Amino acid sequence: MNSLRIHPTITRAQAQNRIWDAIVVGAGPAGSLAARQIASAGSNVLLIDKAHFPRWKVCGCCLNGAALAVLSEVGLGELPAQLGALPLDHLRLCASTGQAVCRLPGGVSVSRVALDAALIRAAIESGVSFLDETTATILPQDPAGETAEWRQVRLEGNDFDTPLRTRVVLAADGLAGRSLHLEPGLESQVAEGSRVGAGVVLDDPGDYEQGVIYMACALPGYVGLVRLEDGTLDLAAAFDRKALQASGSPGALAAQILKVAGLPAPPALETAAWKGTTLLTRRRSKASGTRLFILGDAAGYVEPFTGEGIAWAMQSAATVAPIAFAGANQWTASLERQWESRRSQMLFVRERTCRYVGALLRRPRLAATAVSILRRAPWLAAPVIYAINAPPWKTSGARSSTGSNS
């Protein structure tokens, strides 16, 4: 893992000594890819994250066809293969009534440790300045004051409190990000009945094949399992909050769900150190403001599975980049409306599909019936699988314009 270490390319003092064209808060796939695309177009860009890299994330180890299409569009199509990503051929849905195997039209599994580090490196190679282990807060805009020509982003830590100026700022700091906590009217609203995310990576040589996404469904939630490029087994789950409290631990509840679905529990499942997330399903009232764009999980999350979350993040990054670049050169309020419109158009079909499937997974009897039907006629799942994996321009109506910038 030390070979994946990403070192900062700039100090906080150096970052303070210029007005940036764009500052991107959050160096996950959405933030890193957006920063790369904006820098490739000719802007000076600062990418900030509170963590040091590499770092492990709860989920996002599956890149579906839509995510791979975005990488190809922006000139990073070879990246998954360079990381040793494993092709994904099948989705195995498991419930109390048995198992159904559905063919996947494409996709790969790759660890977030490797993927996130590679995307940050790609951003740095395109001219992005990178600053890690730094908390960033986007300060409220005062249109009547001297900051009307830029936004201010405050960097905070034990021994520093540094304001930076930028012509545009992008918030891509994820579900639990705090960069926008001072921005009025942009509070994140959690959906009623939202589930809790949890995940773990196990050194398990056992029963789960590579190239297959296993999805175990039961009343308390669902658990996804997939082999990664280094042979480890990644588990990502969405749990009912009350069921999680009653079970005592994520590992115990995951074991319960796997048992109901007829799947074996890896030996270290209950004793491993699980990592959790905040409540999953949430949304902001809007994804923009004056000289501000919000993307990725920071803008909203609809409990995706089998690769949708990363695909949404990458597609959002590729779509917002030319809009942010234009805003860095000359800001107009129409850019906010443009991003809101493009984002809505881009995600409508995919989010609707995930809501329908998510609603099904929350109803064990319906899910079990669906698995029973698909076991006999797996081709019935093809329209849903296609909708999830289709290249972005086939669901949003327009191809990304960022490919020419890479």
From TrEMBL:
InterPro entries associated with the record: FAD-bd, FAD/NAD-bd_sf, Geranylgeranyl_reductase
Pfam families in UniProt: FAD_binding_3
Molecular function per GO: FAD binding; oxidoreductase activity
Domain of life: Bacteria
Domain (FAD-binding) ranges: 21-321
Gene3D superfamilies linked to this entry: FAD/NAD(P)-binding domain
UniProt EC number: 1.-.-.-
Broad class of enzyme this protein falls into: oxidoreductase
Keywords: Oxidoreductase
Name of the protein described by the UniProt record: Oxidoreductase
Organism name: Lignipirellula cremea
Lineage, uppermost ranks: Bacteria, Pseudomonadati, Planctomycetota, Planctomycetia, Pirellulales
